Structure formats: structure tokens, C-alpha cells
Amino acid sequence: MSQNPNSRKITSVQRVQTFVDLLRKRNRATLTELTEQVDLTAGTVHTYLHTLQEINVVVKDGDEFQLSPRLVVLGEHVRNQSTLYRAAQPQIDQLAELTGEAVHLIIEDGGRGISMYERLGQDAIGTEYHRKLRQQSHNLLHCTASGKAILEALPEQRVNEIIDRHGLQRQTVNTVTTSEELFDDIKTIQQRGYAVNDEEEVLGIFAVGVGIQNEHGNIRGAVSISAPKAHMDRQSVRQDIVDELTRATNAIEANLHNIDSE
């Protein structure tokens, strides 16, 4: 029986995604190195890479392949088309300047988080950490302030689906690792009005996050502020940060409504 042509197309797309992911993780790799990572012959891998070169997704430097700078342009295009990004970017810039800390705009995709935009204030530390975080294709939701702010606004069934799919991996000794703990955390967020990451992703880093909803109450993303825990040890400082974050999030939601109404 001949193979369904639709299945062949889907398989090809999945293989392209595999090569893109491998090059993203490795930065650059030879034909031999890539062949060792997939269950394909060297000739088949070469054909894929040659095709990706033809459409300028991959470039070759000597014997090594790497992702094309053209993907930067595509990524910028996708981000700039987002009404959420356009509504949030000015507020995030202002928030980073006001607090001096790192401010992040996160969206949920497939049960994990994607950093859509980030601005580092003058007092922000861990620049290399934030750079690596941006390069990850997806980040965990259960151990970040923005991620938990998103989970809080999702239906319980959806949260359980995310847990079943991605688990609750431990990142530090403070990470929530059971569904019972996570749902207790969600109840606290609902009562308090904001989410907290108390050294749950990285030791020494404290963050607060607030969800962004549209006029229908659907979650669109979240904004978080992260800083060394020592910067937020005083309750008065922490409350000031939360107040500014809440103000900025309200402004983003208003901007979002105005843009969606255009």
C-alpha cells in the first residue's frame, strides 16, 4: 500500500523542525554531527540541509551549518504583528526604567512560556542568564512568576493538561513539584492578585508577575519583574514593585483594547 502523501509532507516538516532545533541548540554543526543526531542517512540529511540553504533558513560556513540571520527578520515580523507586543512594549520599557530591574513579557504556547519581549533596567543583573533564557524556545510555567500568573487564569482542566504534558520539573529546592502545591499556589495568586517566584527557578532570584487579560477575560500573557532577592527583601519595596507592575498591566490591557478595536 502506498504511503499517504499528506503523511509524507507532515514527516518532512517535522524533520525540518528537528534540524532547526538541533542547530539552535548547538549553534553550528557539521553534516556528520547532525547525521549522528537523527535516524537518517548522510545523503538524506545533506538533501535537507541543501534545501534549507536554498530557502535561506540555513547557511554554511566552511564545513559547518548554522541558522540563517534571515530568521531574525522573520521573528521580528511575527512579534511586530502581535497586538499584545504593541500594547505592552512602551509600558515594559517604562517599567524597567522606573524600577531598574528586568521586566519580561511572556506568552503561553503549547503549555510552556515564550519570551516575547524583555527590557533590562539599570540595576538588573544576570545579563548572561537573561540572554540564555531568551534563546530557549520554551520555558516552564510552574516555576516562574509570569508562568504562574498565566496558569492562574486558565481553566483547571487546561492546567491539568499542561501538568500531564510537561510535568513539574524541579529547578531548585523551592520549586513546586506536585499538582496539589501548584493549585494551592494558584489559589493564593487569586487572593493576592499577583504571582511570586521565590527562588523557584534560579536561586537568588525573586520575581513577581501579573497576567494580562483581554476585555472578555481571556488570558493573553503576563508581565513579570525579576531581581536579586536582596533587592526585594523589604516588604515596602516589594509592594512598590507590585503596585507599579499592576499599574503597567492595567495600562497594557487598556492599550490592548484600543488596538483590538481599531
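[next item in queue]
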Amino acid sequence: MTNAVSGTNTTEGTTAGARLETALLAGGCFWGMEELIRAIPGVVKTEVGYTGGQIADPNYSVVKTGRSGHAEAVRVVFDPAKLSYSDLLEKWFFRMHDPTTKNRQGNDVGTQYRSAIYTYSPEQKRAAETSRQVFQDRLTVAGFGRITTEIADAPPFYYAEDYHQQYLAKNPGGYCGLGGTGVSCPVGVVSASKG
């Protein structure tokens, strides 16, 4: 699969010798999330797909019904020397969608649009839990409800159909229901708390 924007292959390795990390995030329609995430400095590649459900090898026609249990998600490969996992969550993920709306972002409604952070290590899980609490504190002050973002070990990720990859880059007028809350998260909280 070729990235529609950069022309690079999104399913092969990247810079030789680089120690890269992977994040798996769900926060509404994967078209909009991928469009925002792929522009973040330190992100090496993004792929959209399905995760967290009960059906193996799902496709969009099954996932869009909301009955598969899968969320639309973005798998993010990033260079931790340029972008920390905590910054990815605090500066970007929690701000790009409304994590207080259960199974909904804008006009997109259903379990496939839930907010979730799927982690690949105990360190990622701790960072996600800390970031969620810090952002909850900020949302509470701003008058928002409880965060509904689930945090769980990363389940299998199923690559979405090619036409979904970099969809908004290929279709600039395409729909994106992400709006966020307008609340920002203080940065450096997780890294500072590591001591």
C-alpha cells in the first residue's frame, strides 16, 4: 500500500536503525484522525483499520453496522526521539476529539466511533492512564462530563480497505466529524512524573 501523500510504502519498514514505537488510537471516524495524526512531527506512518471487536478480518460494510464490536482506529508508527507517547496523547489525541461522548463524534454515532487507547506495553498503559486523568481534571474545570475513553491492551489490528487509507488527503472535501472540546492538556505531565 502506498501512502497517497508521501508516496512511501506504508506496510514496509522505515528508517534503518531507528527505534520506532507504535500507538493504536480510536476517536471517531478514522479518516479525520489519520489526517490530523499524519501531520504531527515525529509520526513516521499511519494506517487506518479496525480493532477491538469479535470478528476476524472485518471489512467496512460489517464494521459500519456497529455490530462487529470493532472501532475505527489509526495505527501510528512514530519516532520517540521526536515525539513521545505522552505528547501524542496529551498534545494531540485528547484534543482532536471529544472523549466525553460515548460512541459518538459529531454526526458519527455507534460503537465503531468510540474513544479508545490500545496499548502495547505496561509503560504505554501507565502513560495513557495518567494522561486520561490529567485531561479529565481539565475537562471537569471546563464543565465537561466524564471521559469515556477505554484503555486496554492492544487487540489484533485489521488493516482497512485501501480506499480508506489517507482518505481525506485523496478527497480533500470529504467529511470529518471530529471537533474536540476546545480544552487543552498541560504538556509534560507524564514525562515529568517519571522522576
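[queue empty]
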